[in-house]
Amino acid sequence: MTEDNQVDNHFEDEEELYVHHRFVTDPGQQSLRIDKYLTIHLKNASRNKIQQAAKAGSIRVDGKEVKQNFRIKGNETIEVVLAYPPRDKELVPQDIPLNILHRDPDVVVLNKEAGMVVHPGYGNFSGTLVNALAFLLNDLPQPDDNPLRPGLVHRLDKNTSGIMVVAASEYAMTHLAKQFFDRTTDRTYLALVWGEPEEDSGTITGNLGRSPKNRKVMTVFPEGDLGKHAVTHYKVVERFGYVTLLECKLETGRTHQIRAHMQYMGHPLFNDPEYGGDKMLKGTRFAKYEQFIRNCFTLCPRHALHAKTLAFTHPVSGKRMTFDSDLPEDMAGLLEKWRRYIGSQ
Fold it and tell me: Strand, helix or coil at 147?
């Protein structure tokens, strides 16, 4: 059992939860605090770690999250759930082409293609970015909590393209992780969203947490203690009438932050199925326009989000490093298609 890794707060990636331990209490079980029960039944798990797991929502009784002071009784099912598969799986290096922008003994900067899963997980133990990195680098640094995420200090969704930095040494991993945690990195994304924001720039502030209705997506909790603090700054780059190209700058880096914040603002990402953007949300009902939208979805068959720039301080040299990337073909073609359509009206 592991404590929440603070760096995970900065990952932009979809995660499922997996049962790592399951216990069914005896019918005659006397009332007992769940943290004490698990300390007895889980090897090498301290009471403090169990309490932290409970605070993170990782302990359930009969399917419901409970706190560390919950008192168990007989005939209850206790589960400990975490965000990665409960089985050990050998990481297989694979010779997968990568678009490397910079490489030195401590860091690798790359431009990830849309469609590539970042790290191995349930159903994706091969063909991932980490498999490719394991082939490229002999000894990726290992995080404490999950051996299937070597070198990773942040992530991108499978269908988000763009720039990532990977740690190639233990020192770099610690140093870069702290930069993401301290928010001293700079990241900008380009996002095509439905509709037209009234202002040319703005800030979205709203705690993000997993939706109670669908744990595969995040939702905004505008008030209260639910979720984690999240801030996204945006400005309009180009308006197309029915859709708008935005530049988004992350102040925090929560899971699905841009996607969830844009949905909350009423402007979901174009062709984002999880957040409602894969439908025709703006425009006319003319058959020609509906066909145009279908053609756009075909041209860019994923949510229209690209991590365009990344800046960080090199962990060894101390030099500030800034990287920029061009839009991939699918998003560049999508924008050009919109320009032609608006120009013809």
Answer: coil
> Per the structure, how many domains does the chain have?
3
Domain containing 261 equals: 186-343
Predicted confidence (pLDDT) per residue in 105-116, tens digit: 999 999 999 999
Instruction: Evaluate whether 67 touches 51 at the Cβ level (below 8 Å).
Output: no
Q: What is the 3-state secondary structure (H, E, C) of 280-301?
A: CCCCCCCHHHHHHHHHHHHHCC
**Torsion 314-317-319-323 (CA) sign:** negative
End residue of a domain, out of 130, 163, 181: 181
Q: Residue 135 falls within a domain, yes or no?
A: yes
Same domain, yes or no, for 216 and 269?
yes
Q: Averaged over 111-125, what is the pLDDT?
A: 82
Amino acid in the structure at residue 338:
W
The DSSP symbol for 293 reads H
| pTM of structure | 0.75
Active site residue 157: yes
Pairing relation of β-strands 161-167 and 305-313?
A: parallel
Residues 100, 116 within the same domain? yes
Out of 13, 106, 157, 272, the active site residue is 157
Ordered DSSP codes for 234-278: EEEEEE-SSEEEEEEEESS--TTHHHHHHHHHT-PBTT-GGGT-S
Instruction: Find where tokens 């209490």 sit.
Output: 25
% the chain with pLDDT above 70: 89
Backbone angles phi, psi at 244, to 5 degrees: -140, 135
